[in-house]
């Protein structure tokens, strides 16, 4: 991106506190026109606060929010050309569906006929025909969600803000609505910011995912980037790499050499890490199970772990094995590994992790604390590398 | 027969007696009052009036009877008190419900202060003050006195009514282009209306009933219904007192019906929260 060209929605150094609690800490975030960005994070990470700051319900203590090059930091919510969709839908119980959808147009002093036509269009687009005269209380959850979406879309917002709009729906409706919202957003070319704590929802809907951790951006990237190249142990864990091992190794010319340990063979990884302890994370589906005496791969870049199966379960499609690493060692760990066929309990096995399926980070004790500046600078460098 | 007996609770007799006694306590005086309004002649030891008729109604509503003037005064004062109280209570209640005031409870308590002191002390001093500024014996003076009294109900109930309206409903309007004022009038006010209506009725009834303040500030220039009732009762004229009391009763019954019809439970639950 050209350095002189500012992103359509641009946040710089946004800091928000509630009383003495810092909720957002120097958020820099640029969102392009027509982009669908998901703000992903655990509850309490500040994602809703960030969305409300963009919407104008919170004025940041420091930093600016700009839209299309205009500073809107101190503009009230009604003059920002945005529409916010709430988790609770916040439909007005005293108005009918048609009145709810048409309210924004009424505010813009459009004629009755124009409003009726637009409401009809929106209702048709969202499959709400025949419900126009109903009150929200007599609608199902999915219908309410559509009305709330229609109300936001009716005013043709430049930016659509979505605050966990799908979390109150049951799973099947949620899946189809994900798809619908994404399709509508692309068809109408709206810039969208979507807050969610559901990783899969963020992955399937967004062009770009911003992972927030304790009021800071932990990583920003495409779904494929944050999934396959997590920038920190936190992101890796959040993206489902729940298996964690503590190993050690040393920096070597072209990367980092993991030293052989009580349950692992040595292996070389391309990450540039300082000598010392490392945290290795991987997903259950990343590894393959083999016989205990399987020969180590020739490439020297595959991590090989040894252990025995302690239990198996069938979550569907694959068999999930809990593998205890290290023969009775006190410092051993239990990891979950998927395999297409069940392996008997008690069987000695080896777990093979091919390159790029496991992630290596400095061990928590050795690494500088995540809040320090050096770390965030490091992260920024990584981001630049990814964008290049 | 056996099923009937088994379903018959052995406690029905004491329960019926208690309920009967309760009904008598509530409706006995009312029945007595109704009898008095149509009694032409009734004295001890007769259990029932000796003659029935409507001649006292004619006297009450005759041009010389003061009743029409008192009734008009009372209703005008009550309506003005409602208007003034709500004009103050709507912004105050909204602010108390929406803004996270740390002293919110304290502010709500402050409205109770006029109630904390003996009415007489307060009103005698107000009367002296109003006499100095020329408000004594005027309708505005009485309205002001009634408002100090009615504001407690108005603000408390309005606060509860506004607190029952989810702030997100207002924010939803703001986010699609409504100014703060517009969102208030289009969303918050209509949703808080049942509660505000209840507070209006409360204030109206309080004003209609109010005696002490009306007496010190209003009398003798502004005649109010309770003063008429007092004079008639003190003079032993039970017929006129009963008819006046009946007139005062009509709005309270109307109030009960409206509360039953409009007031949502969740609004009531938030009173004083």
TrEMBL record, chain A:
<dbReference type="Pfam" id="PF00005">
    <property type="entry name" value="ABC_tran"/>
</dbReference>
<keyword id="KW-0547">Nucleotide-binding</keyword>
<dbReference type="InterPro" id="IPR050093">
    <property type="entry name" value="ABC_SmlMolc_Importer"/>
</dbReference>
<feature type="region of interest" description="Disordered">
    <location>
        <begin position="363"/>
        <end position="388"/>
    </location>
</feature>
<dbReference type="InterPro" id="IPR008995">
    <property type="entry name" value="Mo/tungstate-bd_C_term_dom"/>
</dbReference>
<dbReference type="InterPro" id="IPR017871">
    <property type="entry name" value="ABC_transporter-like_CS"/>
</dbReference>
<keyword id="KW-0067">ATP-binding</keyword>
<protein>
    <submittedName>
        <fullName>ABC-type Fe3+/spermidine/putrescine transport system ATPase subunit</fullName>
    </submittedName>
</protein>
<feature type="compositionally biased region" description="Basic and acidic residues">
    <location>
        <begin position="375"/>
        <end position="388"/>
    </location>
</feature>
<comment type="similarity">
    <text>Belongs to the ABC transporter superfamily.</text>
</comment>
<feature type="domain" description="ABC transporter">
    <location>
        <begin position="9"/>
        <end position="239"/>
    </location>
</feature>
<dbReference type="InterPro" id="IPR003439">
    <property type="entry name" value="ABC_transporter-like_ATP-bd"/>
</dbReference>
<keyword id="KW-0813">Transport</keyword>
<dbReference type="InterPro" id="IPR003593">
    <property type="entry name" value="AAA+_ATPase"/>
</dbReference>
<dbReference type="InterPro" id="IPR027417">
    <property type="entry name" value="P-loop_NTPase"/>
</dbReference>
Automatic annotation (TrEMBL), chain B:
<keyword id="KW-1003">Cell membrane</keyword>
<keyword id="KW-0472">Membrane</keyword>
<comment type="similarity">
    <text>Belongs to the binding-protein-dependent transport system permease family.</text>
</comment>
<feature type="transmembrane region" description="Helical">
    <location>
        <begin position="151"/>
        <end position="169"/>
    </location>
</feature>
<dbReference type="InterPro" id="IPR035906">
    <property type="entry name" value="MetI-like_sf"/>
</dbReference>
<feature type="transmembrane region" description="Helical">
    <location>
        <begin position="181"/>
        <end position="205"/>
    </location>
</feature>
<feature type="transmembrane region" description="Helical">
    <location>
        <begin position="106"/>
        <end position="131"/>
    </location>
</feature>
<feature type="transmembrane region" description="Helical">
    <location>
        <begin position="12"/>
        <end position="39"/>
    </location>
</feature>
<protein>
    <submittedName>
        <fullName>ABC-type spermidine/putrescine transport system permease subunit II</fullName>
    </submittedName>
</protein>
<keyword id="KW-0813">Transport</keyword>
<feature type="transmembrane region" description="Helical">
    <location>
        <begin position="75"/>
        <end position="94"/>
    </location>
</feature>
<keyword id="KW-1133">Transmembrane helix</keyword>
<dbReference type="Pfam" id="PF00528">
    <property type="entry name" value="BPD_transp_1"/>
</dbReference>
<keyword id="KW-0812">Transmembrane</keyword>
<feature type="transmembrane region" description="Helical">
    <location>
        <begin position="238"/>
        <end position="259"/>
    </location>
</feature>
<feature type="domain" description="ABC transmembrane type-1">
    <location>
        <begin position="71"/>
        <end position="259"/>
    </location>
</feature>
<keyword id="KW-0997">Cell inner membrane</keyword>
<dbReference type="InterPro" id="IPR000515">
    <property type="entry name" value="MetI-like"/>
</dbReference>
